[in-house]
Inverse folding.
């Protein structure tokens, strides 16, 4: 039996290893991109969830107060909008609460109706720009 001079069963040749590494690189590159974009999406969703939670928290605080208290604080004393730059435990977020008087004629409400429009907006910096989430509700005198 004659032996072939260039065929050896001792291991892999350099060409085979280079081809294997190239194929591994072609498969791994899209996976790394997928993981990176997934991580960014999850981080963004967490920030959005925190912003909505901050909006709801403030809205519930405002709506828990009586109409006169909200009117006195936001319309007469501090003025609207009320800006909170330092939210405890949430240094990346800024919350703005706006309270305004709803005109009954414009909103097709009965004459003499006293209604306040409450808007809570939370701003935060994410990536290249600023993002925001808002909630709006109404508060009537009872």
């Amino acid at each position: 039996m004659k032996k072939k001079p260039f065929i050896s069963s001792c291991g892999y040749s350099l060409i085979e290893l280079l081809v294997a590494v190239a194929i591994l690189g072609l498969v791994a590159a899209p996976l790394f991109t997928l993981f990176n974009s997934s991580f960014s999406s999850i981080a963004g969703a967490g920030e959005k969830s925190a912003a909505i939670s901050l909006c709801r928290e403030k809205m519930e605080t405002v709506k828990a107060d009586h109409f006169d208290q909200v009117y006195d604080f936001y319309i007469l004393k501090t003025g609207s909008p009320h800006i909170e730059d330092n939210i405890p435990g949430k240094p990346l977020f800024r919350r703005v609460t706006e309270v305004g008087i709803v005109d009954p004629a414009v909103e097709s409400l009965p004459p003499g109706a006293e209604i306040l429009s409450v808007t809570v907006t939370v701003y935060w910096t994410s990536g290249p720009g600023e993002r925001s989430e808002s909630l709006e509700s109404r508060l009537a005198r009872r």
Summary: Residues 9 and 62 are 79 Å apart (CA to CA). DSSP finds two helices and four strands in the chain. Residues 14-140 form one domain.
